[in-house]
């Protein structure tokens, strides 16, 4: 909601987003379909059909004060994501040169009474959403708008038919009741053994029901299957050093299945820009906590640890480069940097070269080497050496090279020259 207006998107409850603007999905929630806005003339609009203004909500879910503001019956340039639980509407607005404020509001599918497509030669394709809040139009414009509207409607109808949110709530209640009962009955090692047995029985039940049914039942069990597979992958990782034949068989099975929660390029049906933008956001969310300590990582390290985290659905080096090149444009707080040697890294966007030089000059007060800088700044030796060499080229540091080591010191020559002149 702006300072002077409010629109339909401001009248929906706020969604929890990651730092890069991706949906922080619930435990059993699966993303079914998404359409961005702004690239190639593609745009989406959420419009109210009611004559009366809708009631605005604060991010906390309270009624917002709209006194002195103008009601606008449509929210334009929004991104739309359909999950098994809700429809997510997102808008972004610039805040700083390196950051973007993400606004996400959602309509829970339990509040969606019905939906149908309205197509006309003289109007953009649109879906009429009959909700408990009133009638809303979801309008699609730009490339493949008609097909996108049909795809969105298909996914909405599928989600409404499955009602996965009710299944998730029931599973959560059953899990809590089972845990409470188990805690009352068993203690100590017996309780641990019992919980593990129950977990394995649940895994067997889910896999059997998923793979012996039709395609619809497989889709319904997808979220549970992915979580079970992730647990087994974690088990394999913990026993990676052991020569366990069962672990090798399980790893091979998971590799052949190719199941993972990460997005796939084929899911975007040729919309490569949308795929790389989504990949950039996922990459930023993945790297942000890791860069809090190390500050900078080489692309080689990023490629290895990110693909390891994705499991079996790996990305190519070319896809990684495309995603990295979009980090700065999307203002995700990270940026790519290339050293004179050609080494490419990803770092916090707030860490400019001047900021790095200040850190290095401080570290070199009493002389420093690549090893000491790597230790102090939590960097690899290669990165520390590259930073020192570039700072030397720019005149911030000078070197003292001996047969024993190469040390760097702050460049005081200009300061001394001024003192001599005075």
UniProtKB/TrEMBL annotation:
GO biological process: protein transport to vacuole involved in ubiquitin-dependent protein catabolic process via the multivesicular body sorting pathway
Location, primary (coarse class): cytoplasm
Gene3D superfamilies listed in its UniProt record: Winged helix-like DNA-binding domain superfamily/Winged helix DNA-binding domain
Pfam short name (any one): EAP30
SUPFAM superfamilies: Winged helix' DNA-binding domain
Compartment(s) of residence: Cytoplasm; Endosome
GO molecular function list: phosphatidylinositol-3-phosphate binding; ubiquitin binding
GO cellular component: a single term: ESCRT II complex
Annotated keywords: Cytoplasm, Endosome, Protein transport, Transport
Family, similarity comment: Belongs to the VPS36 family.
Assembly notes: Component of the endosomal sorting complex required for transport II (ESCRT-II).
Described function: Component of the ESCRT-II complex (endosomal sorting complex required for transport II), which is required for multivesicular body (MVB) formation and sorting of endosomal cargo proteins into MVBs.
PANTHER family tied to this protein: VACUOLAR PROTEIN-SORTING-ASSOCIATED PROTEIN 36
Protein name: Vacuolar protein-sorting-associated protein 36
Species this protein is from: Amphora coffeiformis
